[in-house]
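worker-03 picked up job from queue 'complexes'. Input manifest follows; three sequence lines, order preserved.
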Amino acid sequence: MSQRVRVNPIACEAHGMCAELLPERISLDEWGYPIVDSEPLTPAVLDHARRAAQACPTFALLLERDRERERAS
Amino acid sequence: MTAILATGGSLSWYLTRSTGAVALLLLSTAVVLGVVDVRRFSTPRWPRFVVDALHRNVSLLAMVFLCLHILTSVLDSFAPISLIDTVVPFAGSYRPFWLGLGAVAFDLLIAVTLTSLLRQRMGYASWRAIHWLTYASWPIALLHGFGTGSDVHGTWLLVLSVICLLAVLASVIVRVADGWPEHLGARAAALGGAGAFSLFLLIWMPSGPLGSEWARRSGTPSSLLHHSTASSTSASHGSGE
Amino acid sequence: MNKETLMIDPPVERTTTQAPGSLPRLLAGISPDGAMSIDQHLAVHGQAPVLARRRGRRSESPLIEQIERAGLRGHGGAGFPTATKLRAVAASRKRAVVVVNAAEGEPASLKDRTLMQTLPHLVLDGAQLAAQAVGADELIVCVCEIAQASVETSAHAISERRGMPLDSVRMHLTAVPGHYVAGQEAALVNHLNGGPAIPTFTPPMVFEQGVRRRPTLVANAETLAHVALIARHGPEWFRRLGTPSQPGSALVTLSGALAHPGVYEIEHGASLVSLIDAAGGMLANPRALLVGGYGGSWIGGEFLRGVALSDEHLASHGASLGAGVVLLLSADACPVAETARVARWMAGQSAGQCGPCVHGLDSIAGSVEEIAAGRVQGNAAQRVERLAALVRRRGACGHPDGTARFVTSALDAFAPEFADHARHGPCEGCARPGELPLPVHRRTANPTHEPVPFR
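worker-03 finished. Artifact:
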């Protein structure tokens, strides 16, 4: 079962620590908000991903187990 | 070690005072770092996560020294400070008011530390609201230091305290200025409070802790006053008693 | 276009008997004199079947299977399969809540308030049936607070139904704010839970945890009207109209320089030309078609003759039917100015919660405005495309995606006009009053904004 990184865009306040700690999956746009690569996390980056999620001051960065979700808006 | 502490030798009293001073220094640094952190300061050599981790670690270190300060003051047999007095304010027999301020500050910092350690389990808004108690705990801790400390006349502690005060004042101003003029009422209140506190210190210190017979006026039990003036070893306790 | 006094004009003569399979279905028996009373409703449609109650938690309501065979999809804009939604809510052990969504924040859409204003009983029938199918014990009817007439007719209809055998679930009416994102299902649930009418982060989805943390079915008013008819006439009847992949009929809001703009019922796959004919024809030549809404797509004038109104066909133009908005822009209008106006309005309608939406939509609107005014630095169109790609899927709801779609489809359909404006600045059409309707709200998702009538 794979895990992915995901951002809660409502909680996110563009502190930017996630991009520093997980540059393999996260980069920042021109306003400082994270652009997340939602590919499954490899064992090599999993620890870094966990650390990045813990570092987020607003708990906006989440580690999610794989589960297909429909966006029903 | 406990034996030395228990017999009330000057070692434990020195430990109490020195760990207290270090705690003040570390707490002030933690406040400065906290503002640096929330203002999102970063350079290539000091990325955000480092500033943030530095703030968290310095704060924890401050708590370590604070606990040592409190522990040595309880274990020391010179001043009658019980374990209860460390968290229940104003009930003690040694300079009750000024020691009590220390207990108040400690209580606030316990709340801040626990909520920060258990952040994951509480909502962000509640965590943040409690975290702001640090701004209240700092002046209370400083007053406690001036009121209970026996080194106040000594230049080193005074200079250290003034440096810490200036650093914290500067941090408050920087913090309040960020996002001005939103929430103007709260910001004005913060500036007003900081200004009033500084003014209070300027007026009170010369006639208070820096004035004559402060030990007696601040509530030192009379038995200890006699002890300190009568004993020939009193010289090693510092000149302020 | 004045939303409050719009006349409803069905495309075929009014009849009180249902010719098998054909139109009108939803709009059968409609009269311009006001809402259908309960007696008129029953005279036209007959009693809804009182379905066998779910026996125990394991057995599924027969209605859900009927909805699935009918192939009904949601009419709120997302087109989600209704049976799947019903099943998801029914699957929970907790008692569910059903929310009738007639919030209709899309300015160019009138169908939902029209339904509540003229055919409330059809919607309420469907709501009660759905409530029984998912095991709900509460039904909340949400009507846009700006559409005062539909608020009154809905309230009256609810009171008319007291004691009806079909109504086993208690229901009440709530007027909800009219800003754009208020009708998004998480936003609606947020409002019903006492918060502002702006989206929340999902998961948990509302079908798992919605109103008061209970599984909640948020269904568009029109979708429920279809449910009411499927329950009466069956899935085979439903499939007699429409296309195999998109069966049944749908309400569309047809606007533009037509003899009789308004809300019409079409079968899926009907040609745009036939709809225009039913509306009495064009008064001025259309330049382009906007389909779906302000989160939808533009289709250039050269294609209009061949456009069929089904998602399958529209997909070849990069469009979909969405909330049923069919808006024809006249040849006199300036598509660049209209796009700029709406893009700026959509940016203002952001709930303001997500950085990419707040900043991205503002930048997109700014770039389009630059093009419209001829104050372009560098390649503004390219900048818009890049920004559009940057905001997609990075908000808590689909608002930035919709706005991005609207703007990029405009750049595509009106490439010559955009290039022209970039070089030469405003044209004659820019000075004309806008054709795309925009409500006069001062702020976006501000919970305290007062309803203001359209201009």
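worker-03 released lock.
The first helix of chain B runs from residue 2 to 6.
Residues 30 and 58 of chain B are 6 Å apart (CA to CA).
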